[in-house]
Structures are given as structure tokens and as C-alpha cells.
Here is the input.
Amino acid sequence: MSNGLPRPVTAVIIVAAGSGERLGYGMPKARVPLGSDTVLTHALRGVAAAGVARQICVALPPGDTVLQELCETFAEELRAGHDGNPEAQIPLMTTVDGGATRAASVRSALAALLDGTEVVLVHDAARALAPESVFHRVVDSLAAGAVAVIPTIPVVDTVKTVSPTSGDDTTIAPELVTGTAPREELRSVQTPQGFRLSTLLQAHQAALGFDDKQAAAVTDDAMLVELLGVPVHAVHGATQSLKITTPLDLIIAEGLLEGPLGIRWVEG
Here is the structure.
């Protein structure tokens, strides 16, 4: 449910330039089959179905004509689906070449956003089954005044901190437990992550000055914003928003598509 506040002009960036090596298909992750379509197709359908975006900008592997054509076909389907409804808000579909890193891909997409964009959602194509409700919660939080907001779910496993063993202890085990993190304070972070565009641009500009070690330590856009000292708010994510990274993740995603909620993703 919307909070009723006027929604800001929103763009959604889909990061789809990953190699997908761990899936073992020998192709970019966004092209890997998921059900009868590709991972990217499902991600695009989820964003479009949420109806929050004036623009959808996809960062693709450079030179990938297959994914480029997929995006063009999807844009045509969107327009065809709204024929006869002149008041329909059809998002503009754009694509850019992604970079060698996730951050570089996001920066490439940021440079291609339409003038007047107020907020941007950064979404991983690998979270292809993220429900529309998560997009709405993120945008509603931004509309209410958040500068940065991320969807999260509680951590259900006990989490330990460890350090490498040394000396004679290496014959016992490779690591030694140094502590137990308070599980009630831990959250697993998902996408889409939402930001005021000006804030995210500032965060990525600052990141250009990072050395290799600092850059490697940054795992998402929210972390870049945190480093500016900007508060990052959290809303409820969804278990369906799993990140498809390994063959097991793909099996679970296939199972979701075959379950009672599958119609929403296959036909939506």
C-alpha cells in the first residue's frame, strides 16, 4: 500500500553486466534461462509491473547484442501493451555499456538518466523475482523524506566472526572463532536500493578517489552513501528477492516460478 504521498520522479537502474561465471552457463548471468525466459527478462517485468519508473536504464555487458535486442524487444512489448491508452505512463527504456566493476556500471547508467530525475533505484538483474511491493516500499520511504533506503530481511543464521589460525593451531582448523554477532541487529541487504539522485552522484564521485583496497571493500551503493555520513533507512524486503548467483540459487528461483506465485512472474 502506498503511503499516499506524492512520489518523486524515479528512474530504475538495472545492473546486468555480470559475467555469471559461478552459474556455469558460459554466458552473462542476465542471459541465463530462468523458466521460459531469461534472468533479465524477469527483472525487467518486475520493474515494469511495479509502475514506479519514468525511465529504466539497463547496464549491459559491452558489445552484448543479444541482451541489447532483448531490451529493445521488451520496450516494444511495453508500448504494444499500452496501445489505445494515451494516458498510460510507459517508462523510457535505455541501455548503457557496463563497466569492469558494479560501481562502474552504476556510474555509466547514472550518466544516462533523464533530466528532472529526482530519485534513483539501483536494482540487480540477479534479483529477478523481487516483488513489486518492495519497489513500492522503497519509493514510499523516499517520498516520505529518506535520502537513502534499502530493503532488508532478518538474518536467521547465527553469525560468527573468525580469524585465521596460526602456528600449531593450523593443524586443528584453518580458522578460530573470535566472537558472535548479535543476530537481532543483523540484516541481509537486497535491492532495489533507493537514493536521492544528487546524493548517489556525490557518493560515486567520492568513490573515484578510492584506492584498490577501499574500492574492493565496497559491496553496494548504500555503503558508498554511508561513507558520506548520510543516514540509510531500511524497509522490509522479501524472501523471493534472492540473488541468483550459484546453481542452487537458480534451482530455488525455478521452484518459485513453478509455485502458486509463478503466474505473477511468468505472465506479469
About this structure: Residues 263-268 have pLDDT under 50 and may be disordered. The first strand starts at residue 10 and ends at 15. The chain has one domain: 10-153+187-266.
